[in-house]
Structures are given as C-alpha cells and as structure tokens.
Amino acid sequence: MAQPVQTGTEAHGGNHGGGVFPPFDNATFANQLVWLALVFGALYLLMSRIALPRVEGILSKRNKVLQDDLDAAHAFKLETDTSILAYAKALDDAKKNAQQIAAKTSDDLKIQSDAKRREVDAALTARLAKAEAQITAQRQQAMAHVSEIAATATSDIVNHLTGRAPSAQDVTAAVAQAMKG
Predict the structure, then answer these.
(1) How many domains does the chain have?
(2) CA separation for the pair 145, 168 (Å, rounded)
(3) pLDDT digit string (tens) for 141-171?
C-alpha cells in the first residue's frame, strides 16, 4: 500500500490547534530578544556609520548649494537695485539736461527772432521813410506842375467853349485865385 503524501500544509508534528504563536512562545523569548538586540545593534551601526553620514553629507551639500544660490541671488538683487538707481539717476539727469537744452535753445531762438525782427523793423522803417520821402517829393513836384496843368486845362476849356483863347495872364491869375480859396 502506498503511503499518503504530505502536501506541506500541515504543521510540524501534525498538531493543528494547541500551539502558541512563536513570537509569544516563552521558550524562545530570550533567543528572540538576543537576536533583536544583535540585529538592532547591527542596523544602528550600519545607519550611524554609513547611511546617516552620507545623508548628512548630501543635506549639507544641498544646504550649501541653496545658501550659495541665495547669496548669489541677493548679490544680483543688490546689483540690480544699484543699476535701477543708477538708471533712474541717469534718466533724471538726462531729463534735466534736456530741459536745460530746450530752455537754452528757446532763449537762443527768441534772441535770434528778436534780432531778426529788429532788423526787419529797421529795414521796413527805412523803406517807409524812403517811400514817404519819395511821396513827398513827388507830391511837391506834382503840386508845382498843378498850376501849369490847371492853366493849360483852363485855357483849353475856355478856348473850346468860347472859341477864342484867353490870355496867359488871365488864366494864371484865375488859377492862382482858385488855388488859394
């Protein structure tokens, strides 16, 4: 007869219900404490000597990089603030300079305009005086010839109306009397 084959699902010794959970078994409790202490000590040494120094080194490098980056950012911020202040000052100086140049140019143009206006006024005054002198001379010249023209016209009119020419003395006396009154 064939013997039954064990499938491996039975507990050792074939006892299914009466055993104690091994970690709580009083017979193996001392061994378990010793192994716990040994494994804990080994893990503690492994962590304290190898893993934690590496983590600490990584963290210190990271903190150093962060601090260096923060310092660089602060330096760049100071440099930027300085540049902004310098730019603002340069812009303000440029505005003041532009205002001074504009004021000076305006004053120069006003002076030039006033000088040009005075030149034009002087030229116009001279031309006006010359024109008035010419008008006065032409008026006097015309007035000198008015009596001649009036005498000639009077003589021609009287000759045309009466058919006979008046004497030059009569015409001159009549024109002189008309011009006085």
Answers:
(1) 1
(2) 16
(3) 877 777 788 888 888 888 888 888 888 888 8
Termini Cα distance of the chain: 187
Identify whether 138 is part of a domain: no
* Rounded Cα gap, residues 30 and 81, in angstroms: 71
The answer to whether position 74 is within a domain reads no
Domain that holds residue 31: 27-56
Q: CA dist 24 to 9, 30, 47, 141, Å?
A: 22, 11, 29, 155
* CA–CA separation, 38 and 46 (whole Å): 12
In the 8-state DSSP scheme, what is residue 48?
I
Question: pLDDT tens, 100-141?
Answer: 999 999 999 999 999 999 999 999 999 999 999 999 988 888
Query: Is pTM, for the whole model, over 0.85?
Result: no
Cα–Cα distances in Å, from 168 out to 119, 151, 152?
54, 8, 9
